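During the no-cost extension, the postdoctoral fellow (Dr. R.K.) reprocessed legacy sequence entries with the updated structure-token encoder. One reprocessed record is reproduced below for audit purposes.
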Amino acid sequence: MECAQALDAQDKIAHLRNEFLIPVIDGKEAIYFLGNSLGLQPKRTATSIEAVLTQWSRYGVEAFFQGAQPWLSFHDNLVQQLSLIVGALPQEVVVMNQLTVNLHLMLASFYQPTGTKTKILCEAKAFPSDQYMLETHLRHRGLDPDSQLIEVAPRAGESCIRQEDILQAIEQHKNELALVLWGGVNYYTGQVFDIEAITAAAHASGILAGFDLAHAAGNVPLQLHDWNVDFACWCNYKYLNAGPGAVGAAFIHERFHNDAHLPRLAGWWGYKKDTRFQMQKGFVPVASAEGWALSTPSPILFAALKASLELFEQAGMEQIRQKGAQLTDFLFFVLDGVLKKFETPPFVLLTPRNRGEHGCQVSILFAEKGKAVFENVAANHVFADWREPNVIRIAPVPLYNTFEDVWRFGNIIETALLNSLHQH
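Re-encoded structure tokens follow.
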């Protein structure tokens, strides 16, 4: 306990925890380790949304042009901070739709099967939404997903995908591939992938590379522009705390912004801004990532995202990432201490330990009775995540979790394991 408290005392962004609404159970703050699923609500979110509602009540539709924050330019106040989080130029980021919708839109532009190059390389057992997106998008193009998807899986007996296997698959299938679509972080194991190396390998063979950053944005270091990534999409409700069903975002590298021949599915909100209200026939896109926008965005959803981004700006990504790495290292340390109490290890850690190979998430695979342990942990006011067949995912988030949270969790899971042994 003293070690955890000492680390908390040294934490330069500890004060930001007070900016969030921590769930309270039986009069005490719970331990919330589910930021990889839904981030906690910033206290300022309600005020941010209320400002939009007040504008609506006062100005009606004219709120797009009037008030302290006219809705028409709201987007401009989001992309600056988001671009710092993902390592992009502000004009390379667009806030719109949700993750899966944006992936479909990106594939409409960047998946162009021609000749023998028709296939897509992806990770095996990606998050189901991505699997369904790829399956249905290919069928919509008149292609068979069973023959057009090349999936890379962990080797037998291993839980993580080896980097060399990804690069080898790109080399092996380079004459068949039209696109590499990969995740930034594997949702199940927490493994971080080398986006820069995957992109470089794809480009070396004339293949485009796009990424799903659902578990990466706001969690791990990203330099999308410098890594030459073609496109990426992410949600803003996990580590970015913008609320359930939050508006999503996409990155499109600037080299595509003025490509008039690039196909896309377009809408009015992506039309060139200075002539948008002339309502003329013939689509002329904004020469930025905003050229992929479709519909009028919700300023209410923008306001929720803005509230969280203000906290990221206060903390700075460098300090957030530094604390996130320290928190996860401490979680590994605590779990190692739990393992030492048992002759036979009751669990193994699926998540790679090396910094750079994991973010804020650690996935714990139990030998048996994992569900009973999970239920015991939940009964002790810990918000964690259960994944079949026997995995608990824990995500200590630097903006609102503490080292004491991690230490307390270690005691709770140790007691739960001891209780399960006695029951056995």
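The chain has a mean pLDDT of 95. Residues 75-296 form a domain with the Aspartate Aminotransferase; domain 2 fold (CATH 3.40.640.10). The remaining legacy entries will be reprocessed before the final report is submitted.
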